[in-house]
Specification:
Length: about 700
């Protein structure tokens, strides 16, 4: 039937400004370019990004073969034999070094040599070029020794260097691959087939690729929703934890949106498909995770600049080392120490310091329903002074509920609700649904007959043989009715706090009144308290009337309120806060809040479970839980702390190790061989990798304590 509720809410109660709700115009992720396949994954290594096949399996194979070839090189080394006091002498022992050493150099060292050439060609010197330089110098010195030009036993050290470098790269890429496994895990959420319902009601399995918008699919108990859509028949509890991070199943019935990859836990539902393939929320999440893992940040830029600088420092240090020790008349030590300088200067740990933290943090956050589009936004979140929440749909549900009922003398609350629910039972207006929901919670409703809309005033119907009506002040004025004296103070108090007040009349008397208000999310209070405990000021902005906004703010403990603000002027409020010297995070639904989200230092789109590609936000919360904002603060502080720790370790290691490798303490008997330098370099890498793995322990669940 047509909506009979036109004009039902009185203007005196401060209705929402036009566009305040605006939840229907997201675009399902179409604005995120590239997709998951666009993720380079490892470009920070220069050569890695330039050469195909740089995956954990490649380095694993090369490592094990190099290790097998290195063992005889070590065992037959004169230096090692002297160390352990044994002797080996057999025909061809002198050829083991050149033959096996060359095999290790060309086979095991090839990824580093190719990467170094790529960095040289692109004029972007970095880690791979440093490794390549160390290997070439070591190989040249070894060949020269085998030819009798030098007296250096270098083959085993060259082989050990290559083997250790391969081990480090294998473990690094395996760790990064595990972090990026979040993408594969998301892809596996989709079923291989869907059960499509034909026009005649028959159900037939079809490949997912054959689904089209408008198709109706059957989702059985325990089955996964194959595509984004709307429930058209049935009701079920859906497990949406893989999308929103919310652990409890949520009820979904006719008219409710559902997301691909979620699971029907208890009942069958039929879903009309509204998005397939790259347009689904799941595809959008994959794109966001890939984009975040591949994105740069200020800390990454710093690491890249340091790696380039380190190339020049190491080259200069190597040249000086060679010249000084050669001038002292010890050519063998000159070559050995030069190689050690180049080996130990390899910024392997530096190259891993930031990317691994990024990869792990974005994977962990994606599993918690926090989708990071912009690494810079996440880094800035740790410095935010003020969080500005949009009210409707963010701190509140964006839907009215009956918050109070009062009955006139001689009547009771159940009677008032029963009559109001019967009158409103056939209406689809949001206020009518709220009244019916509150009434049916108390028991069954009588039938409302001869329903008639009263334009601008309310609605009336016959209930139990009497004409009853529900409406605002205009209804009372038209009928010459007055609010009973005992209800007048109650109505005044409700209006003062901005509630919508509706009167229930039966015949010629007002039997009661209802207060309807936008329902505050239960978790909003905790979100506000957590942010304030973390030292962040909490503010709210809304197009609602001042009394409505103040009532919500008082309920939640919010520090400052911007009320009666038009959607197009919300970004001006952000500018005002920034002019005060505050670093501002704007939290909104991502539609009419888009200008403010873009203007803020950090834009956070909340409640976008099926609309994960909001262009204007740097961070998207897949669930509607505002406590996720505190989780973003926690993630920002934890990831930044890990990046700084890793950078400090990697940079400090090089600063201390290069002079030592150059032999500045040789006078005291402290020297480093190239192989020991490789071991120390790999140890530095392991420290950085293990420290980054601690990111997995960060608790991003809603309501967890905020990071200090």
């Amino acid at each position: 039937m047509p909506d009979v509720h036109a004009g039902h809410v009185p203007t005196e109660t401060g209705d929402h400004a036009p566009g305040e709700h605006g939840h229907a115009t997201h675009d399902h992720g179409a604005h995120i370019p590239g997709g998951a396949a666009a993720h380079g994954g490892h470009d920070h290594h220069g050569g890695h990004g330039a050469h195909a096949g740089h995956d954990p399996e490649t380095f694993r194979r090369r490592f094990w073969l190099s290790l097998v070839l290195t063992v005889p090189l070590v065992v037959t080394s004169e230096m090692v034999m002297d160390w352990f006091g044994y002797e080996l002498d057999f025909y061809g022992i002198d050829t083991i070094g050149p033959v096996l050493g060359s095999a290790v150099f060309w086979w095991g060292g090839w990824p580093f040599l190719a990467g170094g050439v790529a960095e040289l060609r692109s004029r972007r010197p970095g880690m791979m070029l440093l490794i390549a330089m160390a290997l070439v110098v070591a190989y040249g010195a070894s060949m020269a020794s085998s030819a009798g030009w030098f007296d250096l036993d270098f083959w085993w050290e060259l082989a050990a260097l290559v083997t250790i470098m391969l081990l480090g790269h294998w473990q690094e890429m395996k760790a990064v691959g595990q972090a990026q496994g979040a993408l594969a895990a998301l892809a596996e959420l989709l079923p291989d087939e869907a059960e499509r319902v034909g026009a005649d009601g028959t159900v037939a399995p079809v490949p997912l690729a054959e689904l089209a918008v408008g198709d109706v699919v059957l989702v059985r108990p325990g089955g996964r929703v194959p595509a984004d859509g709307v429930v058209v028949d049935g009701a079920a509890e859906l497990d949406e934890s893989m999308i929103t991070g919310e652990s409890r199943p949520v009820p979904r019935g006719p008219g409710d949106r559902v997301v691909a990859g979620t699971v029907s836990t208890d009942s069958s539902i039929r879903v009309r498909v509204e998005a397939v393939g790259d347009d689904t929320a799941l595809a959008g999440i994959q794109r966001l995770v890939a984009e975040a893992q591949a994105s740069s940040s200020r800390a990454q830029a710093l690491a890249d600049r340091f790696a380039a600088l380190l190339f020049y420092v190491a080259t200069a240090a190597g040249a000086v080392t060679l010249a000084v020790w050669a001038a002292l008349g010890d050519t063998g030590d000159a070559v050995a120490r030069t190689v050690t300088v180049l080996v130990i200067a390899c910024p392997h740990a530096l190259g891993l310091a930031i990317p691994l933290v990024i990869a792990i943090s974005t994977a962990v956050s994606a599993r918690a329903g926090i989708l990071v589009k912009d690494r810079l936004a996440l880094e800035r979140m740790r410095t935010v002074d003020a969080v500005l929440f949009d009210k409707t749909g963010t701190l509140t549900r964006g839907a009215h509920v009956v918050t109070d009922v009062a009955a006139a003398a001689g009547h009771d609350v159940d009677e008032v609700l029963r009559l109001a629910g019967a009158v409103e039972s056939e209406s689809e207006h949001p206020l009518a649904r709220a009244i019916v929901a509150a009434a049916t919670a108390r028991g069954p409703l009588p039938a409302g007959r001869d329903v008639r809309a009263l334009a601008g005033r309310g609605v009336e119907a016959t209930v139990d043989g009497e004409r009853c009506a529900v409406g605002g002040p205009a209804l009372l004025r038209e009928r010459g009715l007055a609010v009973p004296d005992d209800l007048a103070p109650v109505v005044a108090a409700w209006q003062d706090r901005g509630a919508a007040v509706l009167h229930v009349a039966r015949g010629d008397e007002v039997v009661g009144v209802l207060a309807l208000e936008d329902e505050v999310r239960p978790e909003a209070r905790q979100a506000v308290a957590e942010l304030r405990a973390a030292g962040v000021r909490v503010m709210m902005i809304t197009g609602d009337a001042r009394q409505v906004a103040d009532a919500v703010a008082a309920d939640l403990g919010i520090d400052e309120v911007f009320a009666e603000v038009l959607p197009e002027d919300k970004d001006a409020a952000v500018v005002e806060l920034q002019r005060r010297g505050l670093t501002v995070a704007m939290v909104g639904d991502g539609v009419n809040d888009a200008p403010a989200l873009a203007r803020a230092d950090v834009g956070i789109a909340i409640g976008a479970g099926t609309d994960v590609a909001i262009e204007s936000a740097g961070v998207v919360l897949a669930s509607s839980d505002p406590r996720g904002v505190t989780s973003v603060v926690r993630l920002s502080r934890a990831s930044y702390r890990k990046m700084v720790q890793n950078l400090a370790w990697a940079a400090g290691y090089n600063v201390l190790a290069i002079p030592l490798a150059a032999g500045v303490l040789a006078w005291a008997g402290v020297t480093l061989s190239p192989a020991v330098g490789a071991v120390l370099m790999s140890a530095s890498t392991i420290v950085v990798a293990l420290n980054a793995q601690l990111m997995r322990r960060v608790d991003l669940s809603p309501g967890a304590p905020a990071a200090a």
